[in-house]
Amino acid sequence: MGYLRQYKIMMNEVALSSGFLFPSVKISFFLRTARLTSLEPKVTSALCVKCSKKQLKLNSRADENRKVVKKSGKKEHHLWQKRDSAGSGQKALNLVRIVSELPNEKEAVYGALDKWTAWETEFPLIAAAKALKILQQRRQWTRVIQVAKWMLSKGQGATLGTYDTLLLAFDKDDRVDEAKSLWNMIIHVHTRSMSKRLFSRMISLYDHHNMQDEIIEVFADMEELGVRPDEDTVWRVARAFKKLGQEEKRELVLERYLCKWKYIHFNGERVRVKRDGWNEE
Description:
By secondary structure, the chain is mainly alpha-helical.
């Protein structure tokens, strides 16, 4: 009987391992494997989506890092093309202080200005222009003329703005002959680029010194170049014609260039009204 019991136990173990005694166990095992195989593509696709999102984030971060690296790169420095205005205000004040303490002698002023630029790699044009503006505000007309002439002698600052400042300084310092020489040079060199401002400046200069013939001459150049005068210039030209006894030309200038309407302030508002004749000067 012991042998039979051992035989049955051994056969049961074999059957159990083969799944004959418990068929549901074997079936459930196959179903489980089938479900796993059916879910496998979904799981792999979800994993792929997650991986692709992670990869996109990593790529975007890498691109941002590359952009930051590009922005933080070194800037090229060209010594002779640099136009840096850093510190130009302090340089301008230093120039004004230097020229203000000098005697009124051309050699002394030019020598000091040459020393001022001795250690500069390029001409400090911005600082010199600011110094001219400061001298003009302080009404130091002689110093304005000296600094402007020195700049022009160095081949720097030959602009219409510098010419306008120099003509104003000649006017205030009663140096009409020098203003006339400068004007002839300007009109000869910059014929096609003359501005209304320069014409008005020169006519104003001649008007201050009662030079009616010169006013008419400049106005003729103005008409020839097709530059329309502003209202103040029109009145100065009309006044010059009146002083010369040419009333018809005065009326013609006023009718041609002066607007028939004018603006006045009435009850705090700007109102346009029609002019009543040409006797408003």
